[in-house]
Amino acid sequence: MSELIHRKLACGIEFGAVPLPNRHVVSFQIMVLAGAATDPEEKLGLSRLLEQTLDKGTASYSGQQLLDEFDAIGASHSSGAGLETATFSCTVLPEHFKRAVELHAEILRNATLPKDAFDVNVQLSLQELEALQDDPQSLMDKLISPQSFGPTLGRHPLGEAETISRIDHKDLDSHHKRYYACGRMLTAVSGAIDSAEASEIFEEAFFGFGHAERDGDRAYDAEFSPGMVHHDKDLEQEHMCLCWPGVEVTHEHYPVQQVLLGVLSGGMSGRLFTEVREKQGLVYWVSAWKETPRGVGRLYLGASTTPERCDQTYRTLLREVDRLAEDLEQEELDRAVTGLVAHTETRGDSTGSRGREMLNNLFHYGYPVPIEEKIRRVQAVTIDDIREYLEAYPRDKLRVMTLGPKALSCD
Fold this sequence. Notes:
The chain folds into two domains: 5-206, CATH 3.30.830.10; 227-404, CATH 3.30.830.10. It is built from 16 helices and eleven strands. The longest helix has 18 residues, at 136-153. The chain is 44% helix and 18% strand. It has helices at 46-53, 63-72, 97-110, 115-131, 136-153, 161-164, 169-179, 195-206, 254-265, 271-279, 310-322, 324-327, 330-345, 351-364, 371-379, 383-392, and strands at 5-8, 14-19, 26-32, 76-81, 86-92, 185-191, 227-232, 238-245, 283-291, 298-305, 399-404. It is globular. It is of the alpha+beta class.
């Protein structure tokens, strides 16, 4: 079983490590509890604008100099702001780990947030929002989220055009001072590094950065609004999305939910692909997935079809969920479990993935959960477990959304 390290640093950062001595690189992620859910209601998009502007200049480096410093140590780095958090990731050779952490501390602690970079990022955000109009699936995700999760968890990280236009440069500085501090940070390190040495490097780089006590560490309230709505849009295809409540990551039935989705949409052998696309030829695209902010879960079915076939596609999607309780076979279950385990032990076993897994565990559970334990839970799922899950979490309350030239005529 993997060795997992977890401790609270004196500076206030929650620290996790996955020592992998046979790897050739070190990967680390820094999570700040500052995402779209922390944005002022009238200035949605602020957290993402801040994340996009942080690395454009600091007290000691210009934006270009920061890029040069990362390139000098061969570091692969990225960042992104989501619904609940902003995350900064880096993979580097072990001998350059300390320098990579120091550069991230420089960005997070000493960002000057140049006004010209902020102005550019505002325009880029507005352009990205406009581009969503030409991406039906992404637009559908944006439109259905408020009905799936409510006004806070249903926010889109980009915000809205009108709220972005209200954000001024001073808002970035105040948001940074309020939300960026050790007490709101989690970090995970994986790879060829000594965990004690890694924790000391983080302690030294971030000591004294804001308050050390955990602040704002809570799950946000979620609201689900059942119903059916159509958004008329001049498209050749009809896009649809169905959503209903599921369970959160920490729930005892979460592994069952994972397997259920694997049966429905686990590659080209999943029921949705074989039954809805291959046998009936109803859809161009079909999938099932989950979204799990902290403390809540939602299940989704999505498809794109012709306007003439949207009613039939809708009924067929629901039938495929309903009949899981009737005719699920052991072979299907085994195939879904094998797919989940294979994904965990292949793509999920990269150095960066192991660190991200640790970070997500700290965020959702508050402590590390060994991958081996998660695999055992998935492998223990039975057909009866799937039936019990479907009975406990029926799809009787649905949020249904269509996007295209034709509304559904069936309830």
